[in-house]
Amino acid sequence: MSDKVVIFDTTLRDGEQTPGASLNVDEKLQIAQSLERLNVDVIEAGFPFASRGDFEAVRAVAREIRTPQIAGLARAYEKDIDACWEAVREATQPRIHTFISTSDIHLKYQMKKSREEVLEMAVAAVKHAAGYTSNVEFSAMDASRSDLAYVAQVFTAVIDAGAKTLNFPDTVGYGIPEEFGAKIKYLMEHIPNIHKAVISVHCHNDLGLAVANTLAAIANGARQVEVTINGIGERAGNASMEEVVMALATRKDLFSYYTDIVTQYIFPTSRLVSKLTGVVVQPNKAIVGANAFAHESGIHQDAVLKEASTFEIMTPTAVGIKKSTLPLGKLSGRHAFKKKLQEMGHYLNDDELNRVFFQFKDLADRKKTVFDEDLVSLVETEVIYKSVPEHFRLLELVVLTGTTVKPNANIKMEVGGEVKSFSTFGDGPIDATFRAITHLAQSKCKLLKFVVSSITGGTEALGEVSVRLEEEGQIVTGQGVDPDVVTASARAYINGLNRLKFSKEMGPKKGKPEEL
Ligand code: MN
């Protein structure tokens, strides 16, 4: 058996099922490009039958991303599989991923079907998919709570029907490493035609064991793992790619398995996913959290300075975390600027580069030192957040506030090409600003969340604002960056309004599938 572990990234499918993490086509493409640089083997780009937006996104990823295989998810129905094939067919190596539940509890309460009926449906679905491509994956939903002998029976039958990858998901995050590993071992030993297929696992983190279960599965014969960046996904999320990959890479003494991931792209990808989904990475998150490589204890600090391996089992640079060394100044040239951005994992086209460079010059005029983090923010503002059409655009903002005046905001905005102004009071400067924007945009949205953070530190740091907005069931995240926190807030709010408008135009989701 090969020692290579296939990395199947489902950030764009399961990860996107994180509440409020909806991504549009452009955002999915940006993440897919980042995943391609990471060198993942398979990208699950979405669930094409779920909505027009999902379909378009999967098709766009299939058309543009050339190196990884591109998978789409489909329930075990012909119409799902047809839509899935239509969406992935233009990929270099398309994959259809079809699934059905195998646990008695799902069969009885959710599907109201017998084991025989489900077995028949699974075989029929795989045969239908295999009519389109030889690259078919089958998943037994809620496998970890299913009767193992029955799962083995279903897997044997679907291999005969043409499935090349068999996924054993811990859909509800119920598994315990030793037990979960033993289940994989059982499958390896009880499926007579297993040599024709690869066993995969898809672990959820409800008990905080997704990565541990995934590693246990690898040790027992699984050679594909379904993971997400930052571990995002339904409920407590999925096994985190960076943790699985770095565990294998760091403990080479223990594991003979390897992945093809280019680990230096882990951190830039983590940051991109966090920004676009609006799902913040906790500071103590392994590998990519802000504190993952911060040593607080004096004894540790002293030792790490003398010899990093005393308390560091891996280096920050191995996962693409760069020290803030830059200070790019006003006089830095365009070429050096481009090279710096590439080192940081941002590959921009000429038009994007020009826009960011212009903003960089502007920032360098206003701020003494421009740090790496500031550059990342500029890229995010100019390139990443502008991935939706700008129906609303901030032109001018004047705010009056203090201890002895009633806060007032005076705003000039472009609304669908028309310039409009409005002035109003509020409880504070941000409240006044948001009221004025709401009035001009004629919006009925609700502000669910408002987070201000500062990049780098010190009073001249850039303010970074994230808002979450909801209207008629659609939830979006808006982002804004500016040296002025009130302006950053206005940008974030307007960005959110543009996203709301855009996602309404993309049409509502038909509802997500039963979760894998
Ligand atoms: Mn899942």
Observed structural traits:
Double Stranded RNA Binding Domain, TIM Barrel, 3 domains, alpha/beta, 516 residues, binds manganese (II) ion, eight-stranded parallel barrel
- Which hetero compounds are present in the coordinates? manganese (II) ion
Mean pLDDT over the residues: 90
Anisotropy-based shape: globular
Tell me the number of structural domains.
Answer: 3
- Known CATH architecture of the largest domain: Alpha-Beta Barrel
Unreliable segments (pLDDT under 50, ≥5 consecutive)?
A: none
Proportion of residues in helical segments: 25-40%
CATH topology of the largest domain: TIM Barrel
- Give a quick account of the main beta sheet: strands, pairing sense, barrel closure: 8 strands, parallel, barrel
**Computed structural class:** alpha/beta
Q: Whole-Å distance between the termini? A: 27 Å
Please report the number of helical segments. Answer: 16
Question: Total strand count, please?
Answer: 14
H/E series = EHEHEHEHHEHEHEHEHHHHHHEEEHEEEH
CATH class of the largest domain: Alpha Beta
Structural Rg? 24 Å
What is the H level of CATH, i.e. the homologous superfamily of the largest domain? Aldolase class I
Strand order of the largest sheet: 1-2-3-4-5-6-7-8
